[in-house]
Amino acid sequence: MSVCVVIPAAGSGTRLGEPVPKAFVDLGGATILQACVAGVVASGVAERIVVVVPADLVDAAHDLVPDAIVVPGGAHRSDSVRAGLSAAGDADIVLVHDAARPLTPPDVFRRVVDAVDAGHPAVVPGLPVADTLKEVRADGSADPIPVVRTVDREVLRAIQTPQGFTVAALTRAHADDAGLATDDAGLAERCGIPVHVVAGDPLAMKITTGWDLRIARGVLAERRAQAERAEVAEELR
Ligand code: CTP
Ligand code: MG
Predict the structure, then answer these.
(1) Which atom of ligand 1 is nearest to the CA of 101?
(2) pLDDT tens, 72-81?
(3) With the C-alpha atoms ordered 219, 224, 230, 232, is the resulting torsion angle positive or negative?
């Protein structure tokens, strides 16, 4: 089974509010895009990696991730995913993985690929929800906002990426895009393709806000410090 990982990285990062598009923000020695591609490479699943970036940053991305194929993205995330899918070559399985989730551990990629390989056409990583969830009347008419009910969180999962698909399933899902789904599996669901969830990982968190960026930088700084300590310990042996 040949696997292509498509990395949509063509968003502007409005909520992050940095002066450069989100994938090009520095995490401390590497950009979010470089850290993301390094994670994909470390997973060992990908025969081909396609990154989708803003059109004016294609050359810059080539320099940052020379081992990936770089294509220009579109106005919406799903446009960018389709641009990436068209460069997937003769892959059997396509994983769509947000650049904005650069800390995703290798195991998550492997769990998703294994489940698609086992015969599921669409597979997503997900985590149980820790907070109590309440449905509210979010029509903007009142503050404080009235609660409608408490939702049963046992049957809910917070969904991450990489999301894995057979090429046929992802192609069909995107042929029917009405621009409403917030992820690729949502498109698959809308056209009746069964979607299954495997275990996600807290490290597959998405960098959306400045707070998320602080967490990601902190995790990487901790890893670097740990590696340095291990190096010193090795030298002292
Ligand atoms: N993305 C993309 N093309 C777009 C929009 C988003 O490739 N037209 C990518 C982003 O680069 C990101 C992933 O889709 O890796 C998830 O999107 P999101 O976290 O919403 O990132 P942005 O759209 O960049 O952020 P914001 O919505 O805050 O502007
Ligand atoms: Mg967005």
Answers:
(1) 15
(2) 999 999 999 9
(3) negative
